Amino acid sequence: MTTIATVGVLGGGLMGSGIAQVAALNGFTTIVREVDEPSAQRARSSIEKSLGKAIEKGKLTEEARAATMSRLTFTTVVADLAFADIVVEAIIEDLELKNEIWKELNALCPAHTIFASNTSSLTIAAMAAVSGRGDRMVGLHFFNPVPVMKLVEVVKTVTTSEETFSRAFDFAKRLKKEPIAAKDNSGFVVNLLLVPYLLDAINALEHGVASVEDIDKGMMLGTGYPMGPFTLLDFVGLDTTYKIAEIMFDEYREKRYAPPPLLKRMVLAGYYGKKSKRGFYDYSVEPPVVSALGL
Ligand code: 3HC
What we know:
Blueprint: E1 6-10, H1 14-25, E2 29-33, H2 37-56, H3 62-70, E3 72-75, E4 86-89, H4 95-108, E5 114-117, H5 125-131, E6 137-142, E7 151-156, H6 162-174, E8 178-183, H7 190-206, H8 212-223, H9 229-236, H10 238-252, H11 261-268, E9 281-282, E10 289-290
Parallel strand pairs: 1-2, 1-4, 2-3, 4-5, 5-6, 7-8
Antiparallel strand pairs: 6-7, 9-10
The structure holds 3-hydroxybutanoyl-coenzyme A.
3-hydroxybutanoyl-coenzyme A (3HC) binds near residues 148, 194 and 232.
């Protein structure tokens, strides 16, 4: 069994840069592929910033930061991932786009390379089928913020071999994460339960049950959640949540996964949450205030 030493990461956004940071920090040679130079630069600076914060807090030494950065390479060329022992994909939830890259990589990578998708809601089977290496395809689902959240869902689909699954499970442990095994059902474990909860919070708001602030406060102080549902929605991204809900609704045809009209309207308005500075809260002011949503 080939030991994983080199990690390829497809996509250097919120999740991809977090995954790359954790991989490089834990000793893996890591290559991040982004679509263009500015995006690759953004991925690099977001990792530098995150490591800088860890130094400020006394959680990382200068030497460890330098060593981590020296293990990281940023590229715009898919073929640069050809020598990876595992490729973790963290691009947008677009099956066609994902599959195009998997097909390209299948022709470039050696036989032992594992293909792992960080998809939140698409089934792994839909990628395994066209990847050309269904037995070496798994789901590796990380949580935001990746450097902080301990969980990784390791997802086995019908074609995944036992060897691939155990190599991926072991890889998650070497990232100092806590892996759990999940079946290839849309949403796996966490989003299966989390997404209906977030959508219910929006429905409750639309039905006038309580205000954004009081619903957030209720769930934080009543159940000990670190963030209320609206803060979490803004944190995950309303566009991302909408996309996940659409995929899950399409899969299960159950009302509990149907994106509420307010969520759709906010996405249409460009209210994506924290990343666009406006979601259920307005982040253009400090401290953030509740957005006027015409409710
Ligand atoms: N990178 C690195 N470290 C970070 C970080 C980041 N982006 N964000 C926060 N941290 C660290 C801080 O440095 C701090 O470390 P310390 O305790 O050692 O000083 C620690 O995390 C706590 O951060 P803060 O004190 O700034 O703030 P909070 O106590 O409010 O914690 C939080 C922030 C960890 C994000 C916490 O609010 C939380 O756990 N929220 C819930 C997050 C969650 O549910 N994520 C899952 C979303 S669902 C998902 O990702 C799946 C997808 O498919 C949708």
